[in-house]
Design goal:
The protein has about 230 residues and is of the alpha/beta class. Strand 1, helix 1 and strand 2 form a beta-alpha-beta unit. The longest helix is centred in the middle third of the chain and has 14 residues. The chain is globular, with a radius of gyration of 17 Å. Bound molecules: cytidine-5'-monophosphate. Cytidine-5'-monophosphate binds next to strand 8 and helix 9.
Length: about 230
């Protein structure tokens, strides 16, 4: 198998929930996403545990503050030696540049964690963006993120192609809002299947409840992998 570009969103409450979940994936090299609930509840112990299991980590804390604060926070996060972190693009170019500086200062190896910017949450839709078409807002924020030296953005797969067309295919699009055709949509408003995300040029997909809530998470992960990364 190629390196996984499927970030499994570990939206669990406790370390033992995560441990039980990950036990089902023995032998697999995963990319997992640790979000606010888990990190605020369990702290850096959860990062250590997942790293010891050999998985890659996207630490999804969506930083958004004045540049100096974001820089200091990123310096600390880089020390955890995670693989990917993020900020809100609406924090501005200076804030995003500061994020990169903090990561460079805090990195523990030759390589800093990737840093991507949240554009427009996939739980929002056009009704909430009264003045501008959603696509324009996302593209503008993605341009700012690139100008600040970030590696990519979090966006819907529906905007992935336009971002790659304008900013090049090396600029990463990390896309949540993924569901299999048979799934419940839950609170996501703009959803896409893994196969559609591949078609729409997503660099990575973020998949939570489709895998974590499945009767057979490993089999569902393999199906998602096949649909998104299979030849
Ligand atoms: O369960 P589901 O697949 O909807 O989970 C999506 C994950 O991606 C959640 O952890 C959510 O916080 C995250 N996310 C998102 N939309 C964004 C950024 C992150 O859904 N724009």
């Amino acid at each position: 198998m190629n390196e996984s570009r499927i970030c499994i969103a570990l939206d669990f409450k406790t370390k033992s929930d995560v441990e039980n979940f990950l036990k089902q994936f023995e032998g697999e090299s995963l990319y997992v996403k640790v979000g606010m609930e888990l990190f605020y509840g369990e702290g850096i112990e959860i990062i250590k545990m997942i790293k010891e299991m050999g998985h890659k980590i996207f630490l999804d804390l969506k930083l958004h503050d004045i540049p100096n604060t974001v820089k200091s926070a990123m310096r600390q996060l880089a020390k955890l030696d995670v693989d990917m972190v993020n900020v809100h693009a609406s924090g501005g170019i200076e804030m995003m540049k500061a994020a990169i500086e903090g990561l460079e200062e805090g990195k523990t190896s030759g390589k800093r964690p990737l840093c991507i910017a949240v554009t427009c949450l996939t739980s929002l839709d056009q009704q909430l963006l009264i003045h501008e078409p959603l696509e324009n807002v996302v593209l503008k924020w993605a341009e700012n993120a690139k100008a600040a030296g970030l590696d990519g953005v979090v966006c819907s797969p529906l905007e992935s192609k336009i971002i790659h067309d304008h900013l090049g295919k090396e600029f990463l699009t990390v896309t949540p809002g993924i569901r299999l055709a048979s799934d419940n949509v839950n609170d996501q408003k703009r959803v896409t299947t893994p196969a559609m995300a591949k078609e729409l040029t997503s660099s990575y997909i973020v998949v939570g409840r489709t895998i974590t809530g499945s009767q057979d998470p490993l089999a569902t992960y393999k199906k998602v992998y096949q649909d998104f990364q299979g030849e």
